Amino acid sequence: MDETWQQLKEWIDASRYIVFFGGAGVSTESGIPDFRSVDGLYNQTYKYPPETIISHSFFMRRTEEFYRFYRERMIFQGAAANPAHLALAALERRGKLKAVITQNIDGLHQLAGSKEVLELHGSIHRNYCTRCGQFYGLDRITESDSVPKCSCGGIIKPDVVLYEEGLDDTVIRRSMEHIANADMLIVGGTSLVVYPAAGLIDYYRGKKLVLINRSVTSRDSQADLVIRDSIGAVLGAVAGIK
User: Fold this and answer.
1) Which of 56, 85, 109, 121 is catalytic?
2) Which CATH number applies to 123-160: 3.30.1600.10, 3.30.457.10, 3.40.640.10, 3.40.50.12580?
3) Location of each CATH 3.40.50.1220 domain in the chain
4) Is 213 labelled as part of a ligand binding site?
5) 121 annotated active-site
């Protein structure tokens, strides 16, 4: 096993309150594209920039066009949990990992078996009526040909955080509390450029900050251990997941 991987395993074995903070890179190994890579969402050609389409104002003004893009580019029903998701769920079952904080909206952490998952940007699996508040599952979105409607006639909106919308205060507070209490913080699959989410790691006060990412991040110099490799391979190996 690589020296840095071995160090990670030893720290995990010695820790009692591990928190994982992850981004799009955790799910790219499940076939879900990220936003900023060559093949990412922001480099696709559409009539409007993706940042505009997935904004609150665009949803309100051009709801049908929003849903056309949303179904095509942001829902991946065939995606399966990869070794990173499975490893984190295993560490939680062992009592090591106390929380997964994710910027992803795909629900793969829950699919893998994780229980304490804090979704900073919401989830495609939750959708609600903008008129009466009734909640619906993902099938209500995928089985509709245009704008999904509630039984009351109201428009259904995905419970995801669009541009121009704020993060959920309760989720943020719980994330801050977990990070502040952690004796080990593993950050993986994120470039740490999206705020305010990326700023959450500033609440960590421990001595075992681990960054696992294929590329350099702006926080590498602050980390106690940096691993530039596949997050699925790394976590899968140290957690004994094949």
Assistant:
1) 121
2) 3.30.1600.10
3) 1-31+79-121+166-242
4) yes
5) yes
pLDDT tens over the chain, length 242 residues: 789 999 999 999 999 999 999 999 999 999 998 865 445 454 456 688 889 999 999 999 999 999 999 999 999 989 999 999 999 999 999 999 999 999 999 999 999 999 999 999 999 999 999 999 999 999 999 999 999 999 999 999 999 999 999 999 999 999 999 999 999 999 999 988 888 888 999 999 999 999 999 999 989 999 999 999 999 999 999 999 86
- From CA 7, how far away is CA 208, in angstroms rounded? 10
Q: Is 201 annotated as a binding residue?
A: no
Tell whether 228 is in a known binding site: no
Give 166-178 as a DSSP string: PPPHHHHHHHHHH
Residue 229 makes CB contacts below 8 A (sequence gap 6+) with 2, 212, 214
User: Degrees (nearest 5) of the Cα angle 167, 19, 116?
Assistant: 65
Whole-prediction pTM: 0.94
Q: How many CB atoms lie within 10 A of CB 108?
A: 23
Residues of the chain with CATH 3.30.1600.10: 123-160
* CATH H superfamily, domain 1-31+79-121+166-242: TPP-binding domain (3.40.50.1220)
